[in-house]
Amino acid sequence: MAKLEPEICVPWRSDCAGQIFLDTGAEDGVRIGHFQGDAALAAYMVEIHNTLLAKITQSAG
């Protein structure tokens, strides 16, 4: 299983402009990526990350 760096071991979220943010619960999360308006690609990357994060969390627990 791949290892994620500690600073990104939180869920991500994306917006309709293709931006990816750390989902810290704050309205203005830290932006960590941008797919130049490609919201579908950003949503796909968020889904991959969040799925991997859940698997890592389950195997560690």
Automatic annotation (TrEMBL):
Superkingdom of this protein's organism: Bacteria
Name of this chain's protein: Uncharacterized protein
